[in-house]
Design a protein that fits this description.
Length: 226
């Protein structure tokens, strides 16, 4: 690749990132239905024609934002969590499951705490019946491997009676996905309904992910007292 080609590629990456950053901000503020491409163009500093050149249409742009959010949640994991992606079934013990759950939950809370726009976009999707999300993410898209591996680890733990057999492991995975989004989106409501403390994401982030980890661990294991 020539220097000129590398320069063009670098500029294309920077342009794409600027557009996606602006789009995520606007989608978080207005939802898919209310977001306007001309507003995204103004905030990104690029015209509508270039945006459509990169992403085809509004749905294509939204799809790119969703995939970028998914990738940050699923693929941008640290080495301490990555090592569990290759663990064998015969290596799965209670200690391993506890550590996996702790790291997965802390990762989920950490990603959303650092990107509250993600939470707001999901709130808009829920309010609008997940219509744009269903169009952007099709059933043909493969489920992220990290989530499939987490599910597999929990299923083995259930078969080994490490966790209670009456607990549906899919609900555990769903809880790890849903708890952080629902919690952060509800902070203003908590301030009204549960007064007397500061319901601020930056203030309680570490405390709340520990709470949900303990809630999971003490609720699903056969021997929670050990």
């Amino acid at each position: 690749m020539t220097k000129q080609q590398k320069h063009r590629e670098r500029n294309a990456d920077q342009t794409s990132k600027a557009i996606l950053d602006a789009a995520e901000e606007v989608f978080a503020q207005s939802g898919y239905s209310g977001a306007r491409i001309d507003v995204i163009a103004e905030r990104s500093g690029y015209n509508k024609s270039l945006i459509f050149h990169y992403f085809t249409d509004k749905l294509g742009l939204y799809r790119a934002v969703i995939y970028r959010m998914r990738d940050s949640m699923i693929y941008d994991i640290d080495d301490s969590l990555k090592r569990f992606l290759t663990i064998e079934d015969d290596q799965i013990t209670r200690d391993i499951v506890v550590e996996v759950l702790k790291k997965a939950m802390k990762h989920a809370f950490g990603i959303l705490h650092n990107n509250m726009g993600n939470c707001r976009m999901m709130a808009w999707e829920a309010a609008e019946g997940w219509g744009a999300f269903r169009q952007a993410i099709t059933n043909e898209d493969p489920a992220p491997f990290a989530l499939l591996k987490l599910r597999s680890i929990l299923k083995v733990a259930s078969d080994k009676q490490i966790i209670r057999p009456d607990i549906d492991v899919d609900f555990i995975v769903a809880s790890i996905i849903a708890f952080p989004t629902a919690f952060f989106n509800s902070l203003p409501r908590f301030s009204y309904l549960i007064p007397g403390r500061t319901w601020d994401a930056a203030t309680i982030a570490d405390e709340i992910d520990d709470f949900f980890v303990n809630l999971l661990i003490n609720g699903i294991f056969v021997d929670p007292d050990q």
